[in-house]
């Protein structure tokens, strides 16, 4: 695990150990531009803590509040930087389709550029694929109020 964390590119970004420009940083998350943007604006919000994938999130208040916070940060950033976008989208890749094994929220101000890129971010129903942040929040919503 130690080795996995130290070689994780997103852990390095979270610790400001790279030249990546951070758009946001607080005690729980950082945000930055996707290295290979697929839309007019395409940002990633990641937890500072190394959480590999959505499969490692559980139905508990700690995880629910983290994902809610990630979504809030992402919404603020894309709305600030693309106030006239027709649509925004927020979501996660589910394994095995995720590229980096460090949880990251994709935040888009649409349209996708080029348009075919949207295929990468579509739900594959029961097979997984891309999950909208709202759906994930429903899934990990704690049974008892926060
Ligand atoms: Zn990591
Ligand atoms: Zn991804």
TrEMBL record:
One matching Pfam family is DcpS_C
- Active site as annotated: 106
Tell me the keywords, alphabetical order. Answer: Hydrolase, Nucleotide-binding
Q: Where is the HIT domain?
A: 9-121
Single GO molecular function: nucleotide binding
Q: Does the keyword Hydrolase apply?
A: yes
Asked if the record carries the keyword rRNA-binding, the reply is no
Locate the motif Histidine triad motif. 102-106
What is the protein named? Bifunctional adenosine 5 -phosphosulfate phosphorylase adenylylsulfatase HINT4
According to its UniProt entry, this protein's organism is Olea europaea subsp. europaea
């Amino acid at each position: 695990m130690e080795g996995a964390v130290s070689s994780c590119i997103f852990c390095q970004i979270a610790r400001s150990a790279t030249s990546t420009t951070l758009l946001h940083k607080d005690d729980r998350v950082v945000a930055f531009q996707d290295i290979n943007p697929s839309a007019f604006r395409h940002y990633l919000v990641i937890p500072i803590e190394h959480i590999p994938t959505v499969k490692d999130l559980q139905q508990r208040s700690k995880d629910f509040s983290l994902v809610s916070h990630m979504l809030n940060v992402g919404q603020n950033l894309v709305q600030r930087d693309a106030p006239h976008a027709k649509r925004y989208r927020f979501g996660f890749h589910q394994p095995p389709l995720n590229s980096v094994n460090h949880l990251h929220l994709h935040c888009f101000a649409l349209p996708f550029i080029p348009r075919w890129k949207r295929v990468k971010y579509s739900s594959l129903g029961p097979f997984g694929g891309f999950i909208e942040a709202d759906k994930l929040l429903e899934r990990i919503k704690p049974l008892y109020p926060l």
